[in-house]
Amino acid sequence: MKKPALPNATRFKGGDSEKITINLGPVDLGQIDLLVEEGFYSNRTDLIRTAIRNQLAVHGQVVQETITRRALVLGLQHFSKQDLEAVRAAHERLNVHVLGLASIAADVSPELALATIESVVVLGAFHASPAVKTALADRIR
């Protein structure tokens, strides 16, 4: 089956972020606070973001090779109601594979999502209405 035309993927804007929660032991947390007090970082978040970015840079080549091998869209992929209606009109189904953010417009019905989306694999964040997420639950990996 040929691939349907999909919306273009774009890079995240600098302000786009998702909140995560981590648990740290008191010694690690104390060392972070010490580095913040000494002026190495502006706050705890600054240190943690820097540490994560450094580790991602260390593994950058593996990440890029895996993105290519797994045919992942890197960045943002948004599906509007119009996009999915075009896929349905072409009698095709989508396999959504994204590293970053995949989003489905709020006006997309669960029925339209079920008719057009075969599978969803998102490494990052998946934004859709609760009804669409529920409808696609068995297709999300």
UniProtKB/TrEMBL annotation:
This is CopG family transcriptional regulator. GO terms for biological process: regulation of DNA-templated transcription. InterPro entries: Arc_rbn_hlx_hlx (IPR013321), RHH_8 (IPR041088), Ribbon_hlx_hlx (IPR010985). Gene3D superfamilies: Met repressor-like (1.10.1220.10). SUPFAM superfamilies: Ribbon-helix-helix. It comes from the Bacteria. PANTHER family: BLL4998 PROTEIN.
